[in-house]
Amino acid sequence: MKLINRDIRWRYRRQVKALCMLFFLLAFPAATGGADVALRIGTRVPSVVISGVNGAPFRIPEDLSGKVFALHFWQIGCSSCKLEIPAMDILYKKYQRKGLEILAVNVGQKKEVVRSFVPELGVTYPILIDPEEKASRLFGVTDVPRTYVIDRRGVVRYRIFGGVTPEMLKKLILSLL
User: How far apart are CA 155 and CA 99, in angstroms?
Assistant: First the structure.
């Protein structure tokens, strides 16, 4: 009889623990890495302020009202990023007049290091710095490169995990311009 009661109590405890864990996961998604859920395709971009390499604040999406824009999250040392950043500059120069904006957001690296590296990139679009990864977490960025393509109303239309070819990025952007 004692053995049966122990078995029932053990099962009951497992069920209670499972329900508590489920409650925690649903109630606190950001604490479990669920911030990525906030940027599903079809959702609006969260409002955030990120500093540029020159120190000027850039307000997303307010400073981009009415524009199609790509947010590219990157780091120094990322080989895919080194290929994508210059390729994005070609698109930026070609389609800026049609309402395209591209922002490259450096994730988690020191401002001084990023500032000294930016001239090597040779790009004409804004480079932003997120050394404490506050904005990156808000956007659900867990690794780089990651790119979001946002329409003129501030709605995420595409999200790209990992590298993207210049041709594919052009195709996605042109579908929104």
Answer: 15
